[in-house]
Amino acid sequence: MDAEFLAQFALNALSLGSLYALMALGMAIVFGVLRLVNLAYGELLMVAGYTLFVLNDSPLPWLFVAGAAVLAASLASVLTERVAFRPVRVNSLNAMLITSFAVSTLLQNAALLLVSPRTRAVNVPGLLTQSLEIAGLRVSVANLITIGVSLSLLFGLNLLLRRTTLGLALRAAADDFPMTRMLGVRADRVIAAAFAISGVLAGVVGLFWIARVGSVVPTIGAGPLLIALIATVIGGMGGLAGAIAGGYVLGALTVGMQLLLPPGLIDYRDAFTFGIVILVLLVRPQGLIPGRQSARVG
Amino acid sequence: MASVRASITRHRALPVLLVLVVVIAVTTSVFGDRLLDRIVTVMFIDLILVLGFQVFSGNSGLLSFAQIGFMGIGAYTSAILTMTVEAKGFAIPDLYPFLVPIQIPFIAAVFVGAVVATLVAAAISFPIMRLSDAASVISTFALLVILHVVLAHWSALTNGPRVVFGLLPYTDLPTATLWAIVFVAAAWAFKHSSLGLKLRASRDSEFAAATIGLNVVRLRWTAFIVSAFICAFAGGLWAHFITSFSPQAFYLTRTFLILTMLIVGGPRTVSGAIAGTIIVTVAFETLRTAESTINLERLVPFQLVGLTEVILAIGLIVVLAVRPGGLIEEREILSGPGGPRAEPVEPPGLEPAGEAR
Amino acid sequence: MLSVTNLEARYGAILALRDISLTVEEGELVALVGPNGAGKTTTLAVVAGLHRPSRGTVLFEGKSLAGRAPEDVARLGISMVPENRGVFPTLTVAENLRLGTYLRRDGQVARDLEQLQERFPVLGERAGQAAGTLSGGEQQQLAIARALISRPRLLMLDEPSLGLAPTLVDRVFELVAELHREGVTILLVEQNVRRTLEVADRAYLLQTGRVEASGRPAELRELVDIESVYLGGARRPGAQASEPAVGSR
Fold first, then answer.
1. What backbone phi and psi angles, to 5 degrees, belong to C78?
2. ipTM
3. Residue B246, SS3 per DSSP
4. Measured distance CA(A164)–CA(A161) in Å, rounded
5. What is the pTM of this model?
6. CA C129 to each of CA C89, C95, C121, C124, C142: distance values in angstroms, whole numbers, following the listed order
7. Is residue C167 within 8 angstroms of chain A, CB to CB?
8. Closest residue of B to C206, CA-based?
């Protein structure tokens, strides 16, 4: 086990872990405020992907196109909240959960209907496919940019949550939503903000995810959704710190499985990863960083 | 005497529901249209799936997405056990040698498939039931995905992502009708059994249930494996109706459809399961036919794909916003006003103590 | 100032409030007392906009509160300290207070904060601490301070002495009396009837969702054998004793 191997592993794990952490965070923000597991979350990624596809031949610089994709994801997120979740919100948590499943189906099939059931190629800037030499190591630029952007986003989000009034309201709502409203904070605004932030995170993850794959398909959101779900559960369903931790752990686990599993079993990598997660949950059902939602009867 | 009368009232619906199923079957048969025959056969199989969901979700109050994965296990297991050696050679060329010569009668195979799925469910679901509500729902979703991954890759059992074909069409309308009746009765029996009652108590107040000594984890786990059995059984039936399928059939699309049937009808009631299945089947077939007609006649300049699902999804959201408990929310049909949610009755001269604060 | 008329409220099929009517005039300290399950907290919840009544009206300074969201009720100047205190456990003490100032647009906030810190020194001492790590009594002080900093027209307190040690209970009632003297209009829900009647201007006695009796403390003590009401017994001394509720005697 030489230094180069370890370094590569660390880099890959960090890069994948960062993506997973952002994904889990996006889900956790909405969960924290509404106690809703948004099963349509993966589709926000899909929206970003199809925006990239639609703007494939645009003369604008890629950074603009990327920005548009992220914006589209955020808008889609806020829109689904306004149109689908808000009317159902008063009814029950289960109703919202199924609604999110319905929205997921709706968006996927809308993409099928409006674009195509087939995979569509997406232009990826050449920069992201290159690699550099740093201190004698082959390092992929994509990995570096992923880590850099993710950490910046996490930092920025932390500033938002700790230094702004909106952030204060979001954190308070996650603690005790009714009390927050009794202090005058408008529920609709806080919820819309949570969905908007969630959408931005999904959009950014979508950019990197699709850059890795080079194409988009209506079902592209399923994988990221699952990751966000698992990361949130092992993180402890409590708060944002847990989700981030869960994301990094899952990323490291996935990269580890990729390396350790014999070739015959590599296809089952995801099944093994989640199998391990289930084992962990057997021992520690409350997850890594338990929050108030993880209390268990029995 | 009053309690006997109450029992009769409570269970009045069951024979009515069973007769309804038979009436639908007989009418279809008499009508004599092959296509309608097939639609109703699938509808009854879907009904069994919905009942499988209902047994767990309706009584425990927890959503679960995993059941269709167990349907898949039931389908593949029963297929392996009924297909001839020759057929297996064509359809699942990499099948484990020890499984190749095994061939058992149809219903036995379906039964074995259901048992296998139940064992898998028993093992996997125990840690899941110990999690908090939100975490367990998420885990069932993950479970569906994992089951799908396994089915899609285990070529030595399932031929991987490719289609398995060559099953014999053992499932016909009478078969489907028979088992639909059996499982309607089973779901009813479960709901009104001691286990079902305790589970529903825990649904309505987990905390209170724990204080009277109910082991909520155990209750949920039991309901989950019963649910897995039912869905896997339906999978075996379905496999021998459709005679060829791939792992994709046991994933999100079918889950969405069955969940819609469950929710529209009302997850808490068996009558609701039947109502929802009928309504959504009618809607689905109508929309599908419209979609195909439009496509065939080229009424619009592009191919419509997915419109049916989009409309169904919108319909589901509307139902959730307007009547989230479903069509038949709480009381089974014909069970009279003395159902489980009766208004507090005021005995003469006494003020009842409410749960007021 | 606050006028509740013929309020009826349900939780599902269960009737929590049957026919509640009460008033609170500006500057008064009005108390709602009664046993568990009487409907006191539900009444506050309806006024605060947390629970929708099935019948009846709630008027505050002439405006109807019916169907208003909690955030709108807050904007009308009603602040509540709920039974569980309602502090945000993962936020610091200072952040909790900051949220109390959410609706304030004037420049007096800093001065008010100073005054509150004089009154509740613990707020200054533990400003940077997570509110969840405070003791019960400290959380109570924080919750009340947070309610006060919004300069409410009406302050509603739900069982502020609940779960506190006897010396702290004294402090709470002293504080309530002090605030009353300073002119704050207060609607106080309490189970500690004796102490409550010592400080209140008027009180309403609730039982199973109805107002059994009301009036000044002295009148109330005469009208009703309060203890037996708490134990589910006769409602009026000398009246025909009805079947006691389960658990009494």
1. -105, 125
2. 0.85
3. coil
4. 6
5. 0.86
6. 10, 10, 14, 10, 12
7. no
8. B357
